[in-house]
Inverse folding.
């Protein structure tokens, strides 16, 4: 079984809809992250969390919110989706200097 | 803030050696990481250099020069499966959140 899982893997939604992307991990890591990747670009950090009580904004947090429900679960929400949020979203955990990425969620906002 | 520069594309033939360079500007430096990403897949960790010098892991090596704010990833005995995007990244902050370069698309030709 994968250590970092994301659901859904693909999602199509309409402008203005609220959607949630979910991430779960079995690695037992405290630190978790949400990144977004646009075609031909590197990953950009949206939010990160040290633990359940510590959540921090990243480089591009506007239009997004997160919830750390447990050590193992970190969810990303788009309160009102817009087309320029169409992207590939990755969740990650880390230990020391290594990050472990989930398989990604491909989101299309129409 | 952090910024990283790397070439957008590199092409080489099977069995050859290729070097992917990365220069960085950071407000605080912990080390330089490299990740591999096959098309549409999750980034996977390759290496991390905190100190100057060359570190070797099988066919892949990574080099760092902190005085030059420069590093490179060296891939030897190229195989077709090495065709992928390679990202350099620097961790920052207490959560070691990553800032990524835009990635280098490596194409290995038969």
């Amino acid at each position: 079984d994968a250590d970092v899982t994301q659901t859904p893997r693909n999602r199509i939604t309409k402008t203005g809809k609220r959607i949630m992307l979910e991430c779960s991990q079995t690695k037992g890591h405290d630190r978790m992250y949400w990144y977004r990747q646009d075609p031909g670009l590197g990953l950009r950090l949206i939010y990160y969390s040290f633990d359940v009580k510590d959540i921090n904004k990243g480089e591009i947090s506007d239009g997004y919110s997160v919830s750390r429900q447990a050590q193992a679960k970190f969810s990303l929400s788009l309160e009102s989706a817009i087309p320029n949020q169409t992207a590939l979203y990755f969740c990650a955990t880390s230990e020391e200097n290594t990050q472990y990425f989930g398989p990604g969620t491909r989101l299309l906002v129409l | 803030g952090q910024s990283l520069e790397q070439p957008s594309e590199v092409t080489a033939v099977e069995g050859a050696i290729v070097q992917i360079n990365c220069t960085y500007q950071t407000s605080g430096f912990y080390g330089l990481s490299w990740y591999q990403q096959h098309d549409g897949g999750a980034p996977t960790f390759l290496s991390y250099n905190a100190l100057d010098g060359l570190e070797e892991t099988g066919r892949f090596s990574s080099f760092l020069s902190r005085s030059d704010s420069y590093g490179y990833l060296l891939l030897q005995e190229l195989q077709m499966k090495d065709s992928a995007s390679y990202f350099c990244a620097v961790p920052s902050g207490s959560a070691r959140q990553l800032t990524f370069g835009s990635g280098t698309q490596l194409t290995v030709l038969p």
Summary: The mean pLDDT of chain B is 94.
